[in-house]
Amino acid sequence: MEEKQPVLELENVSVGYDSTAGMVQAVNDVSLKIYENTIVGLIGESGSGKSTLGNAIMHLLKNNAVLTNGTIKVMGKEVHSMNKNELRKFRWSQMSMVFQSAMNALNPVLTIEAQILDVYRSHYKNMSKKEARARARELMEIVSIDPTHLNSYPHELSGGMRQRVVIAIAIALDPKLVIMDEPTTALDVVVQRSILDKIKQIQKVKKFAILFISHDFSLVSELASKVAIMYAGRFIEVTDSKSLSHTDQHHPYTEGLINAIPHLTAEEVTITGIPGNPPNLVDLPSGCAYHPRCQFATERCKTERPVVHQIDNRDVECHLYDAVRKEVLES
Amino acid sequence: MSEAIVKESSTLVQVEDLVIKFPVRGKGEKKFITPVDRVSLEIKKGEVLALVGESGSGKTTIGRALVRLLTPTDGKIIVEGKAIDEYKGKALNEYRQTAQMIFQDPFGSLNPVKTIESHVKFPLKKHQGYKGEALDQKITDLLVQVGLTPVNEIRKKYPHELSGGQRQRLAIARALAVNPQFIVADEPTSMLDVSIRAGILQLMNDLKDDFGLSYLYITHDLASARYFGDRIMVLYGGRVMEIAESKELIKNPLNPYTKLLLAATPGSESQIDLTNMTNEPPDLTEGRQGCPFVHRCPLVTDLCKEKVPALEEVEDGHVVACHHYGSQALTF
Ligand SMILES: Nc1ncnc2c1ncn2[C@@H]1O[C@H](COP(=O)(O)OP(=O)(O)OP(=O)(O)O)[C@@H](O)[C@H]1O
Ligand SMILES: Nc1ncnc2c1ncn2[C@@H]1O[C@H](COP(=O)(O)OP(=O)(O)OP(=O)(O)O)[C@@H](O)[C@H]1O
Ligand SMILES: [Mg+2]
Ligand SMILES: [Mg+2]
Question: Would you say the pTM of this structure is higher than 0.80?
Answer without folding.
Answer: yes
